[in-house]
Amino acid sequence: MPTQAKQQPNQSISGFEPYKEVKGEEYMGKPMRDHFTKILNKWKQDLMQEVDRTVDHMKDEAANFPDPADRASQEEEFSLELRARDRERKLIKKIDKTLQLIEDEEYGWCESCGVEIGIRRLEARPTADMCVDCKTLAEIKEKQVGK
Ligand SMILES: [Zn+2]
């Protein structure tokens, strides 16, 4: 469903070369940090463009519909879009936080247990701050709390 897909924030990042490690390379040395900085900046740019586009689109479309049914469906559409934009803004914040972590050279380790998160996982989810195990555990806990 294309409309459904449009509401989802862009969770995947395309258009970058997977990192090629040199044998014996230090984990999260400068070349790796540069690699992820580039990915995150590109992703952030894409998201910000998306936010701008929606705002423009909503300004254009905020025309007066004389028919209340049309108005209602337009409001519905706007509120869906706003919720999607809200998620994108949160994601952008998270990206900023992640970029800061890279700068502080604290990026790439699990926040909870301290193991290396791993390049491949980070390339799939550059904002990941936990290893797979801790993340899974956290998600289970979150469900139990009933969020
Ligand atoms: Zn962990």
List keywords for this structure.
binds zinc ion; elongated; mainly alpha; about 150 residues
Share of helical residues: 55-70%
Q: How many structural domains in the coordinates?
A: 2
Shape: elongated
Residue runs with pLDDT of under 50 for 5 or more positions: 1-8
**Bound small-molecule species:** zinc ion
CATH topology term of the largest domain: Four Helix Bundle (Hemerythrin (Met), subunit A)
Q: Indicate the multimeric state.
A: single chain
Q: How far do the termini sit from each other? A: 27 Å
Mean pLDDT: 86
| Helical stretch tally | 5
Write the layout of secondary structure elements.
Layout (H helix, E strand, L loop, with lengths): L1 H6 L22 H32 L6 H36 L15 H6 L7 H14 L2
Helix pairs in contact: 2-3
The site of zinc ion has 8 residues, from α5.
Characterize the structure shown.
The structure is a single chain. With 147 residues, the protein is mainly alpha-helical. It has five helices and no strands. Helix 2 packs antiparallel against helix 3. The longest helix is centred in the middle third of the chain and has 36 residues. The radius of gyration is 19 Å and the shape is elongated. The two termini are 27 Å apart. The site of zinc ion has 8 residues, from helix 5.
